[in-house]
Amino acid sequence: MSPAQQLLPGIPWYDISDPASPTLDELASKYQIHELQVEDCRHAGQRAKTEEYEHYIFTVLKQLQKDDRLIFSDFSIFLGRDYLITVHAAPSNVLDRLVQRARQQNVHRVDKLFYMLVDLVVDDYLALLDDYTEEISQVESEVLQAPEPPVLRRIFTLKRKLIEFRRIAANTRDVVNQLIRREEGLLGDDLDPYFRDVYDHVTRTVELIETYRDLLTGSLDIYLSAVANRTNQVMKVLTVWGTVALPMVIITGFFGMNLHLPWMNNPHGALYASLLMLISSVLILLYFRRKKWF
Predict the structure, then answer these.
(1) CA pair distance 41, 27, nearest whole angstrom
(2) Domain range spanning residue 246?
(3) Which helix (H) or strand (E) holds 98?
(4) Could you tell me if 34 and 151 lie in one domain?
(5) In a 3-state reduction of DSSP, which class is residue 294?
(6) d(Cα 265, Cα 18) in Å, to the nearest integer?
(7) What's the total number of domains in the chain?
C-alpha cells in the first residue's frame, strides 16, 4: 500500500504522498471519513487545525520544508482506533525520522505514532529558530557597522517571515492544546505528559518568535538612528563649510562694487583682500572649534 506501511509491518499506517490518489477515497470509504476532510487534504493552504469525530481525529499540521525561504506544506493525519493515515503532497523528511524512531523504541501503537509525528514537526520549528538566531545576530552587527539599504531590506524580509512563522506556530499551539483537552479516547491517557511537553515546546517557539521580532524592531530603530545621525553629520559639515565661505562671498562682493573702495589703487590690494578673507575664515573655524561644533 505505501512505503511507510512496509517499513513498519503489522501497523495499519497508510502514507499517501499524492492527495489526488484514489487510494485516499478508498480509505475514506473504508473508515467512514467525511468527504470534507478528504477535500481539505486535496486543497493546499489549510491552516493548522484538529477536528475530533466519534471514530477518528483529523489533524492538519504545517510541515517545514527545507529551503532558503520559509515554506510550510500541509501534512494531514487521520487517527482512528486501529489505523493511521498520513496525507501530504510535498516530500517529507519527517516520515523517515519517524520510522527510525519508532523502530528504535519498538512502537506498535498508532496513537503513539501520532504523538511522535506531532513532536517531530514541532522540533523542526525549534531548529529553524536556531538558524534565525544566527541570522539576526548578523543583522545586528551589520546595522552597527554599515547601515546600508540592503540591511534594511534584510530586516523587513526577516520580519515578514517571522510574522508568518508566528501565525503557524500559534495555530499549532492551539492544535496541541485541543489534543490535550480531547474528550474521546482515541489517544491513550499515558500520552498526556508527552503532549504537554510538545505544548511547552511550541509555546516556547511562539515566545522566541516574539523575542526575535522585538530584536528586529530594535535593529530597525538602530538603523534609522544611524541613518539620521549620518545625515546630520553631512549637514553639519556642509553648514560649517558654507559658513566658512560666507566671509569670502561678502568680501568679494563688497570689492566687486563699482565704487571707490580701499585698496582699489594699491598694487597689493588683491593680496590684502585675500588675506582678509583668509583671516575671516580662520577666525570662524577657530570659533566653531571652541564651541566644539566639529
Answers:
(1) 13
(2) 232-290
(3) helix 94-105
(4) yes
(5) coil
(6) 100
(7) 2
Query: How far out from the chain centre does Cα 215 lie?
Result: 11
Copy the grid coordinates of residue 91: 516530500
Using CA atoms, how far apart are residues 56 and 33, in angstroms rounded to an integer? 8
* 175 and 240 together in one domain: no
* Strand (E) or helix (H) holding 194: helix 192-255
CA dihedral 188, 193, 195, 201 (to 10 degrees): -170
- Structural contact between residues 143 and 219, judged by C-beta atoms closer than 8 angstroms: yes
> What are the phi and psi torsion angles at 256 (to 5°)?
-85, -5
Cell output for 221: 530603530
Digits of tens for pLDDT over the chain (294 positions)?
444 444 577 788 888 888 988 989 999 999 999 999 999 999 988 899 999 888 899 999 999 876 556 788 899 999 998 899 999 887 788 888 888 888 888 888 899 999 999 999 999 898 888 888 888 888 888 887 878 888 888 888 888 889 999 999 999 999 999 998 876 678 888 888 999 999 999 999 999 999 999 998 888 888 888 888 778 777 877 787 788 788 778 777 777 776 676 777 777 777 877 887 788 888 887 877 787 776
End-to-end CA distance of the chain: 79
Same domain, 245 and 198: no
Joined together, the cell numbers standing for residue 136 give 539576526
Q: What letter represents residue 263's amino acid? A: W
Place of cell 556642509: 238
User: What amino acid occupies position 105?
Assistant: Q
